[in-house]
Amino acid sequence: MEGIMPCLRQSAKERLLRNMRACRDAKLRIRYLVVVNLMQGRSADETAQAVKVSSSTVYRVARRFRDCGEAGLVDRREENGERKLDERYLAELYEVVRSSPQEHGWPRPTWTREMFVITLKQKTEVGIHVATMSVALRQIGARRGRPKPVVKCPWSKQAKNKRLREIERLIKRIRSDEVAVYEDEVDIHLNPKIGLDWMVRGQQKEVVTPGKNEKRYLAGAQDTRTGEICWVEGERKTSLLFINLLWKLVQRYPDARVIHLILDNYAIHKTQQVRMTLSSTEGRRLRLHFLPPYCPQHNAIERFWEDLHANVTRNHTCSEMDGLMHNVRRYLSHRNRQNHRNQQQAA
Question: Which of 135, 200, 232, 341 could connect to 244 by a Cys-Cys bridge, CB 3.0–4.6 Å?
């Protein structure tokens, strides 16, 4: 390796090997390995392959060793002064990413890396390059994604939290002769929901759609104790679908003194038909507890419906509604059996 590596005495070679074995810095150890491999007579390409670095890295390390000796292997970034991407900077960046640019005086509603650099310079007095900002964003786990549209609850924060606390207390303190369920409806479309899937490079999977869409609807109730689902099906999402679920719950829990339903403010839950059902002899066992408006994240059955879509309806290949509904029923029944087994094992 004449021209790449200087001639070394045997004592210098032995010292290099000792220092390499004692090194605990992973990057510095790689530079030691480059020098040791070259010292043992390997070519630059062979060394690059053995150490799993590029040939340019091998030449750069050899040049630094030739010019500065062993000291040339040390990372020279320590001369740059204090580390800029420290905990304080990254914590401030994390909070900025979670906010909107317009909260920081920008007219633009979405962030760019250049805007992050300027905003963080104002907040921390630390200036970094845009490329370094990319490193900082990776370090805090930030990513570019599609925001989720939501409707803000019109209630005051105090009123919203009060209602949520009441429902939470209801579930925690429910009597042994009472039942509480989360209730909601879900749409089943013959035209499949399109969702993310794994693909190889150069491939874009296709999901064949029937073209003309058909719909079915489920009204479901998830037991807060067991997690089991009680559901009914319908071709229209009306009060009658909800009422059919109420009667099924009455039959499902014949010994329950009260059946508490935690549900949203959808119009079909508040019609005169529903009020008449609740005023009947059996209907008096049912109690409706409405969540604050536009708070689906507090209805536990919503997560169950997401699982249903992920396991059955998203990217499905059924060409007829009967086949799709068969898969829906099979999945719901499987989840109920699974929950039942879990309850038995816990007992």
Answer: 232
